[in-house]
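Customer ticket, subject: "Can you confirm the structure for Oxidoreductase?"

Message body: Hello, I'm evaluating your service for our small team and ran a test protein. I'd like someone to confirm that this is what the system normally returns, since I don't have a reference to compare against.
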Amino acid sequence: MNDFSTVIIGGGISGLTCAKYLNEKGYSFMLLEGSDALGGRVRTDKVDGFLLDRGFQILLTNYPEAKKILNYNNLDLKYFGSGAMIKAEKGFMKMENPFRNKMAYLTMAFSSVGSLSDKLKIRKFANELAEIPDDEFFQMEATDTLTFLRNYGWSEKMINNFFKPFYGGVFLENDLVTSSNFFQFTFKQFFKGDAAIPADGMQAIPEQIAEMLPRNSIRKNARVKGFEGNQIFLDGGAVITADRIVVATDPKTSDKLLGETNERTYNITTCTYFSAESSPLKGEKFIALNPNRRGAVHNVCVPSDISSHYGNAGKSLISVSTQGLEKLDERNLTNRIKRELFDWFGASVNVWKHLKTYHIPESLVQYRAGSERQNSKLGDNLYRCGDYLAYPSLNAAMQTGREVAQMIME
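Agent reply: Thanks for trying us out. I re-ran your input and got the following:
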């Protein structure tokens, strides 16, 4: 039997962040991860020489919690263009961030994404949000995002051409029922910082945090069956004793370990990867959005245009995100995507090679207006952390991990 001061169950972003802050102040701990690698949902696989993140993911560099603990230089971040390409009847319209590219005002003014008034409201809105501290967004009154956009005065054209396809991808839901305060928070992050990926894949983020920890403080393939009092029972029969227990797993596993029953609605996504001889976006470092929300394809990205490490032997890696097609088998889904993208990119789509499809049925816990922050402290010596307790993001995973570490140290 092993005895530890604090045992953290789960090696995702929140558990690693909790461990990082405890270690920084000299507190002993043991982190138990049930799988063969750290990161939770933030994992990267190597398939046929390509780097595939498990679902399309990005790091927003202005996230306040990420800036506290990550070394961006060592992650060798590669940056997306600030804005998006929007599928039009012929070709694409470009919507760039005017704060980053002064010439963007000209392209925005003459694009048909929305009216000039819509585009001027973007700047006004961004300036308003810049004045609000990050921790105040979630204390503000909220509606659903769609109602907020209409009340702010954006036209239906702007909402349908830009906000629905862009934020449909961020929230993983089409109707923009997500809380408006989360929309405002993320809008600020996009405008104030960059969207980026580490050169070697998103898994570099949890691996960097893990490198800050003593090697003997992490156990992989250590699946926890349950705990009682201060005893933790592992698959295989091992028993660990801990003064404090932190549950840092996904919400379903947390409920099981804690004996809770919580009704949660999840936003679902599917990410399908292809390899191609060349980039269909011709090296443009933007995400391509589909304003037709009835289409199979919601957005297309070419990660190898952002970081060449994602590609292999000069070939491009293409990421296609879809929603609502979870019941299709892999072959039918792949064919459906290719048929639709034939209209986007032409016959070259026919020779794309399918690499892998990730169905992620519990990608994000839906965050609606009125959602309340859940307690992280459950007892004198029992805690939990994870973004599902606050709002769905890498930032919230890190925030809840830090907060639990501070509770323990207090």
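A couple of notes from the result: The mean pLDDT is 93. The first strand starts at residue 2 and ends at 9. Feel free to reply with more questions.
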